Amino acid sequence: MKEAKRPLNEEIRARNVQVITDDWENLWTMPLKEAREKASDLWLDLMEIWRKDDIVIVKMLDYGKYLYKLKKQDQKNKQKSKTPELKTIRITFNISDHDLDIKKKQAHGFAEDWNPLKVSLMMRWRENQYSDLAKTKMANFVKSLEDIYKVEKDIMHTWNTISVSLKTIK
User: Fold this and answer.
1) Which one of 64, 96, 115, 154 has the largest count of C-beta atoms within 10 Å of its C-beta?
2) Rounded Cα gap, residues 109 and 33, in angstroms
3) Which stretch of DSSP H or E encloses residue 153?
4) Segments of the chain assigned to CATH 3.30.110.10
5) pLDDT digits over 115-166, tens only?
6) Mean pLDDT for the chain overall
7) Is 43 left (phi over 0), alpha (psi -120 to 50) or beta?
8) Positive or negative, the Cα torsion across 146, 151, 152, 156?
9) What does pTM read for this prediction?
């Protein structure tokens, strides 16, 4: 969230101001002209931080550093705000081509939100005999998602489940 631009240096309109230093030390009330001179002697800027009626509080600070800190804080907040959620798609050994296309569209939707994906194929009873065919079916499905996902962990076969972890391409 961006805050409204606060008046700086020559934009401040008041006769007397209460001045606070960069490390929040109070320099008491003084005429605005004197506060501007003190700030320029220290190569700092004056920024209005609070105003009510005829009371104006200004802070002496390096405005470039202030903007840099705000930018860095915004970047940190963006990183923390959205963590990708692991999505799972389950396919079966006897899945039809149309159903596979629907699963691909679902994977494309997950990729738009930058979510990692886990694809699993469960085999039942006699399907376990055809684990080679199941692995090729899984490999073909993963290959069809190459444009948006890359393989993070190779295809793993455990008991009656074949799974693979995919990561979005950034």
Assistant:
1) 115
2) 59
3) strand 149-158
4) 87-168
5) 888 999 888 887 777 777 888 888 888 888 888 888 888 888 788 888 888 8
6) 83
7) left
8) positive
9) 0.50
Q: Which residues touch 137 (CB under 8 Å, ≥6 apart)?
A: 91, 93, 95, 121
Q: What single-letter amino acid sits at 22? A: D
Q: Which residues contact 65 (CB under 8 A, 6 or more apart)?
A: none
DSSP one-letter code for 15: S
CA dist 88 and 118 (Å) reads: 5
Q: What percent of the chain has pLDDT over 70?
A: 95
Count Cα atoms within 13 angstroms, Cβ side, for 78: 8
Question: What is the per-residue burial (b if ≥16 Cβ within 10 Å, else e) of 58-94?
Answer: bbbbeeeeeeeeeeeeeeeeeeeeeeeeebebebebe
Which CATH architecture best describes the domain 9-79? Roll (3.10)
Decide: 21 and 58 in contact? Cβ < 8 Å. Answer: no
Sequence ranges of the chain with CATH classification 3.10.20.80: 9-79
Q: Could you tell me which CATH number the domain at 87-168 has?
A: 3.30.110.10
Instruction: Using alpha carbons, select from 6, 107, 115 the residue that is nearest to residue 63.
Output: 6
